[in-house]
Design brief:
The chain is α/β, with parallel strands linked by helices and 300 residues long. The protein contains eleven helices and ten strands. Strand 7 (167-172), helix 8 (176-185) and strand 8 form a beta-alpha-beta unit. Bound molecules: pyridoxal-5'-phosphate. Pyridoxal-5'-phosphate (PLP) binds at residues 39-41, 69, 144, 146, 171-177, 259-260, 287-289.
């Protein structure tokens, strides 16, 4: 498994805006790791899969919604690395199966639909026990893939960015990815997280809790920006769609509207507003998630 994926490419982005503001901007292309097993979802899975194998597990079980990038990557990785996989999906069995669920079913993931009420018990040991009785023993990967081993995988990104930079930008959902980057940087440099969800005042404490569990440290070199969520999770508007289309035209790099589109929109806006001092060097992480585009054919 260690040998399957080598480091993802790092590219410099060139645009008149960056030249005008005298900034250097790099993009870390985790979207290029693999067509299906890409981005931060692969980074979070890597050490979990190694651990599952070490513990002699043959089955992975995880949780997610009908459009989840994590469910998608887990199903593909399970198939690739030879695990049985079970997805506990938050929704009544839909009349029209989402493209994501269709894909994971074809990958062999066994889908188990639950109500929102049942789904809320995903961290309860009594509920997990009923799942064990039903499906047999499994290696549990939490919703979104975020746990201590996930942080270890994400932290590896830092060692792959071998250019000088002062800022690292990343999209945030649960904050697990930002926590891993923060652990990898050990308090160095400045991390800017762009939340894809509406004001979540628990995000900062959640990140601190994760880094404390993982490396017994709480770092303060990060801040989370809540100005670019476009109304909340999976919400978007024409302005964001136009940005994503123009970004692709200029750089030949595809973004999606749930996470990476919002992050780059926010980064470009901060640059226009002179947030970054002249001469700043900025690295931005492309966290992948391109499967989510199936719902937006006009962006492809
Ligand atoms: C899941 C996801 C995120 C958010 O990651 P967290 O660790 O939950 O903050 C960001 N970008 C993409 C593309 C994702 O799929």
């Amino acid at each position: 498994m260690e040998n399957v994926y080598t480091a993802s490419p790092l590219q410099q982005l060139d645009s008149p805006l960056f030249r005008e503001k005298k900034l250097t901007v790099y993009i870390k292309r985790d979207d290029l790791i693999h067509p299906y097993i890409q981005g931060n979802k692969w980074r979070k899975l890597k050490y979990n899969l190694l651990e599952a194998r070490k513990q002699n597990h043959h089955t992975l079980l995880t949780f997610g919604g009908a459009y989840s990038n994590h469910i998608y990557a887990t199903a593909a990785a399970a198939r690739f690395f030879g695990f049985r996989s079970i997805g506990i999906i938050r929704c009544e069995k839909p009349q029209m199966e989402s493209e994501t669920l269709k894909f994971v079913r074809i990958q062999g993931m066994e889908l188990h639909y639950v109500t929102r009420e049942t789904y809320k018990q995903k961290d309860s040991s009594a509920y997990l026990e009923t799942l064990r009785n039903r499906f047999g023993n499994f290696y549990l990967i939490p919703e979104g893939g975020t746990n201590e081993l996930a942080l270890q995988g994400v932290a590896e990104i830092i060692s792959e960015i071998n250019v000088d930079y002062g800022y690292l930008c990343v999209a945030c959902g649960t904050g697990g990815t930002l926590a891993g980057l923060s652990a990898g940087l050990q308090g160095m440099k400045q991390i800017i997280g762009f939340s894809s969800l509406k004001g979540e005042d628990t995000l900062t404490s959640q990140i601190s809790r994760l880094t404390e569990e993982y490396c017994q440290s709480i770092y303060s070199n990060f801040q989370i920006n809540f100005d670019y969520h476009f109304g909340g999770y999976a919400k978007a508007n024409q302005e964001l769609f136009d940005f994503i289309k123009n970004f692709k035209k200029r750089f030949s790099i595809q973004l999606e509207p749930v996470y990476t589109g919002k992050m780059f929109f926010g980064l470009f806006d901060l640059i226009k507003r002179n947030y970054f001092p002249i001469g700043s060097r900025i690295a931005a992480l492309h966290t992948g998630g391109l499967q989510g585009l199936c719902g937006y054919p006009e962006l492809l």
